[in-house]
Amino acid sequence: MTDPTPTLDPRRWRALGFIALAQLMVVLDGTIVNIALPSAQHDLGISDANRQWVVTAYALAFGGLLLFGGRISDRWGRRRAFMVGLIGFAAASALGGAAVNTGMLLGARALQGAFGAILAPAALSLLAVMFTQPRERAKAFGIYGAISGGGAAIGLILGGLLTEYADWRWTLYVNVLFAVVAVAGAVFVIKEPEGARHTTRLDIPGIVLAGTGLASLVYGFSKAETDGWSSAGTLGFIIAAVVLLAAFVVVQSRGRSPLLPLRVVLDRNRGGAYLTIGISVVGMFGAFLFLTYYLQVVLHYSPVTSGFAFLPMVVGMMLGATQVAVRLLPKVPARFLMAPGAFLAAGAMLVLTQISVGGSYATHVLPALLMLGFGMGLVFMPAMNLATLGVQRQDAGVASAMVSTSQQVGGAIGTSLLSTVANSATAGYAKGHASAVRSAADAAALKSSAMVHGFTTAYWVAAGLLALAGLSAAVLVNARPLGGHQVESDSKAAEAAEEQETVPTLAH
């Protein structure tokens, strides 16, 4: 049996800095390119029909390959997978920055997603195997959770700055700079503990079913945003995803070397953590999606100003994750942080339902962003800690991949669901008030009013989803305070279960 209390690496805190930098690069890439998209479209002559593929190509490759990427890090070793992911992501980013046509940019974005699917699980699983002392683990995951949650907002800021003062291509080139620093850290600082690799054969049927199922699910929801929920394409891809993922579960339950051992997700606390993260991201995406339009179209902010307008959310998230959750997690059950955090975020969405055409940033947007950031900090930090707590070391990569999968699928569902709600409400409002239009000024005013009405309607739905996330945390997560020797004892129990070839039962 592997020693459950290995010697602690004296360089682990420096390693955390490089791991966090790599995670920031992956997370902010989901939004940094969005800001630059209009400029890239004009420069390369991308058609309106192909424009969405700049975002979708990345999401499909990333979401479809995450579980495979997690298992790769378990087999190769997390440090090696981390470096391969970094180098590949940087190369793909450089290719995209140098793109001369639509196909070259789309191919580069797909490659970014593929290498991101290797990098993201490797980064989180490195933390899981390097930080085993409960209090240190809480601090490490607090920093990591804050970056994972706030990275999207940082992407909006950086994307606005680079697009306005440099060139859209630098939203891709900047990843090369991040990667060079992180690779140097991986070479000279990061050291993976021994005995953490998974040496069994790859589950090829599982890889195919998981990859195609998750990609189909992400694409189905992206089709819903553009074609509607009742379109044949949307329904076809979502139904195919359900069938493929159901077959994946069956294969995993019967396979001798499954891609995703069901013991990873059937644990009550880990399953509750994955579900809470996924639902929270569904609701949280409403803030990014609609506030960007509200600030730029209704309040007439520039891209840079609107990007900086999200900074209070990042500050709130850092406070919630690194100052409050880190101190309380060793002392109180995780659900006492996660549930209130999700309910606070739901309250932030309720504040955003009060935005108006003549409103101001300070009145509703600023307090809502502070509440949302602080609440999500309380959710993400304990959830990411629990998501990898007690797993066997050789399963740390795939357990970490489930965190990213929850975020990716939640983001795809959130974007599509809330966009559909907002668009439907906007169209209904415009139609109902069309008779009052007497001039061009009236038409412009109606357009703004209808847009804001659509946003506020979607925020009501987002508030409900975040409240549901709070309920899932309250009901499913029952882990004791993560202090004392729980991390070590959970690891020991997991390894004992592996030796006896049994699947750990649900936590009670």
From TrEMBL:
Name its cellular compartments: Cell membrane
User: Per UniProt, which keywords does this protein have?
Assistant: Antibiotic resistance, Cell membrane, Membrane, Transmembrane, Transmembrane helix, Transport
Region named Disordered = 488-508
Q: Which PROSITE patterns match?
A: MFS, SUGAR_TRANSPORT_1
Respond yes or no to whether keyword Metal-binding is given for this record: no
Membrane protein topology class: Multi-pass membrane protein
Q: Where is the Major facilitator superfamily (MFS) profile domain?
A: 15-481
Stored InterPro entries: EmrB-like, MFS, MFS_dom, MFS_trans_sf, Sugar_transporter_CS
Report what the protein is called.
MFS transporter
Q: Which organism is it from?
A: Streptacidiphilus cavernicola
